[in-house]
């Protein structure tokens, strides 16, 4: 018997949860295959259902639901916050993807420059601004070395304007 069938037989999620000592939200998560019971809760389910709930079927259904959710999940839609530091290649590639630049262009000089950027605390916003500035000048916004130079120039200009 599936967990959903057993819960329905017991009168629904709320009644079943109250009767057997589970939280309704927890039991509902298991029934909707959003969560999977811990070992302690598996034992409690077996005891409460007198062994009628097929945990292997529940596990298989849960794994299948997770796989389907992963397939249906769209590509990263959230933008990285501008104040986040860029210290690894994966994050730099995310910025490139976000700005519709080919991420493989980060591979050649990216790791060397990222070590410097980690020390000088380069942010996502600085990279975005540098790419936009380079593209506005008609230069290659996907060149990591050019981005590095543009960030340096922007920081120098900012320091000069503060000292005046």
Description:
The chain is mostly helical and 164 residues long. Helix content is 64%, strand content 0%. The mean pLDDT is 90.
Short description:
This protein has 164 residues and is an all-alpha fold.
Chain-averaged pLDDT: 90
**Count of DSSP E strands?**
0
Count of runs of 4 or more consecutive helical residues: 9
Major sheet details: none
Instruction: Please give the share of residues in helix.
Output: 55-70%
- For the CA atoms, what is the radius of gyration? 26 Å
**Are there runs of 5+ residues with pLDDT below 50, and where?**
none
Task: Determine the N-to-C terminus distance.
Answer: 78 Å
Residue share in β-strands: under 5%
Order of helices and strands: HHHHHHHHH
Q: What is the overall shape?
A: elongated
Report the structural category. Answer: mainly alpha
List the helices and strands and how they pair.
Blueprint: H1 3-9, H2 13-20, H3 24-31, H4 39-48, H5 55-72, H6 89-98, H7 110-120, H8 124-136, H9 144-163
Helix pairs in contact: 8-9
Key structural traits:
9 helices; 164 residues; mainly alpha
